[in-house]
Amino acid sequence: MSHPHDRTPWEFLDDRAQLASAPERPRRVVTYVQAGAALWDHGIRPAGVFGSPHDDETQADPAKTGRLPMGDVPYLGAGAGLDVGTLLAAEPDLLVAVTYGGSAVYAIAPEAAKHLEEHVPVVALSVAADRGLAGIRERFAELAHALGAPARSESAHELDEAESLFRATAASAADIRITAVSSAGPDQVYVARPHTWSDLTALRALGATLPEPPDGPGINWHTATWDEVVSWQPDIVLTDARAHAGPTDPALAGRTRLLPWNPELPPSPDAHARFLTGLAEALRDAARSRK
């Protein structure tokens, strides 16, 4: 996945409105794991990836890595196990991170991020819900193209097909209710508020039924008991597959279809097509079982 090296000056305006610049196109790119999985789908191999404070310090969360070949891509740590020295030791000429809006770089402490930017250009792209799933995906495509990735028309075609399939399936399964959750243990579960998640908002836009949980103090999540979730009688439950999430309640598992859900889905056409295709199949099966 190598590309011709462009020796002209390189610039990219990130989603903090900060201009990253380098004397030539970066070749050694260190990334947050979600960003690295997206860039890999576009044909860019990261020189290393790092995780978030939720992640293990020594091993990447397989739910987040997408199709990254982690046997060949160094994992540089996460949380307390991630420091500026480790990142700079990978000799990056660009660091790619994500942000959830504003100027904060996710997964790197503010002082560490400031220190990093004194040594290496940093691009932070927003994965906040207000950008929209397509908007997030397009920004990563722009960055990949700026890093030398070729346009991949086959990926765009597969995504178009997946969206069409999902839209048609959702139209015939409008009474199938989808709920997304992240387990906090045997007595508590976080229920996603769909309007605050870009992928869940996109599902709604394509015709899926994702009811809002009750109002409450949580911005992104409603805190509930498993019995409460069971009482809603969802047809499909998307369960947080990240390593830090707890197990799903057995009572729920016996009553509904469970699908693994990655709230940090790689923002690439390939990953989004896989997500939509898998959920379309679950919708179809749930609708058939109703008959």
Give an account of the 3D structure.
This protein has 291 residues and is α/β, with parallel strands linked by helices. The chain contains nine helices and eleven strands. Strand 7 and strand 8 form a beta hairpin. Helix 1 packs across helix 4. The termini are far apart.
Summarize the structure.
With 291 residues, the protein is α/β, with parallel strands linked by helices. Helix content is 33%, strand content 17%.
Write out key terms for the chains shown.
291 residues; alpha/beta; Rossmann fold; 5-stranded mixed beta sheet; 4-stranded parallel beta sheet; 9 helices
What is the distance, rounded to the nearest whole angstrom, between the alpha carbons of the first and last residues? Answer: 48 Å
Extract low-pLDDT stretches: none
Q: Got a strand count?
A: 11
How many helix segments?
Answer: 9
What is the CATH third-level topology name of the largest domain? Rossmann fold
Task: Tell me the radius of gyration.
Answer: 20 Å
Can you list the strand order of the major beta sheet? 9-8-7-10-11
Which CATH architecture of the largest domain? 3-Layer(aba) Sandwich
Structural class: alpha/beta
CATH homology group of the largest domain: Nitrogenase molybdenum iron protein domain
The topology string of helices and strands comes to EEEHEHEHEHHEEHEHEHEH
Number of domains: 2
Fraction in helix: 25-40%
Tell me the strand percentage band.
15-25%
CATH class category label of the largest domain: Alpha Beta
Mean pLDDT equals 95
Largest sheet: 5 strands, mixed
Shape: globular
